[in-house]
Specification:
Shape: elongated
Number of strands: 0
Strand content: under 5%
Distance between the termini: 49 Å
Mean pLDDT: 88
Oligomer: single chain
Order of helices and strands: HHHHHHHHHH
Radius of gyration: 20 Å
Low-confidence stretches: 1-14
């Protein structure tokens, strides 16, 4: 990150740091330690900012988290869209989604965990706005999976008797579970085989 003023800084510029880099750092620590387990001091160190800089840009720790969560979901959505861009059949689209989540459960990304499944879930019972964000993203993903199942039934890549709604929820449950399983790293060599196994419910 590049901090400090420069002679070329526009008048009235509110911040002297790269917001996306700072939020990416916040995503890392919130994912690893959870919301309640992350202190302002730790955020400050991870983001490379002074407490004053944080409080000029954000009202409080929750505000940092909401901004980090929104960026995290956008990054993930963009990556998933890239993975889906060359898929043609409904089954292939589902396979790309399942593979995307299974790969995300591997390596450093897997051990760090999912911000939405980890830290955000800590807050859903006590914070209505975050609960609405999490619920909205979950409903959108389930609806997307259901649409892919319907597409597959029409194009012949998924068997005709598969129930779209029930299957979408089953797939969604796998996607959430595989990210939790990835936190320990103990089952990393089973992630891709598990993805292949879950796809057999479509055959």
């Amino acid at each position: 990150m590049n901090f400090g003023s420069t002679s070329h800084r526009p008048v009235g510029r509110p911040r002297e740091f790269d917001m996306n880099q700072a939020l990416d750092a916040a995503i890392r620590i919130f994912s690893e330690k959870g919301y309640h387990g992350t202190s302002i001091a730790e955020l400050k160190a991870e983001m490379g900012l002074t407490a004053g800089s944080i409080y000029k840009a954000f009202r409080d720790k929750r505000d940092v988290f909401v901004a980090a969560y929104d960026r995290y979901k956008q990054i993930r959505a963009d990556l998933l869209d890239q993975a889906l861009s060359s898929a043609s059949t409904g089954r292939e689209k589902i396979a790309r989604v399942v593979g995307f989540y299974a790969m995300s459960a591997c390596g450093e990304t897997g051990r760090r965990g999912c911000l939405a499944i980890g830290a955000a879930v800590e807050l859903v019972l006590s914070d209505a706005e975050i609960a609405d964000k999490v619920g909205g993203h979950n409903r959108k993903l389930v609806a997307r999976l259901e649409g892919f199942v319907r597409d597959g039934k029409l194009d012949g890549s998924i068997r005709k008797d598969v129930d779209p709604a029930a299957t979408a929820l089953a797939l969604f449950s796998y996607l959430q579970g595989v990210r939790i399983a990835g936190k320990t790293g103990e089952m990393e060599n089973q992630m891709l085989p598990s993805a292949e196994a879950v796809l057999r419910i479509l055959d």
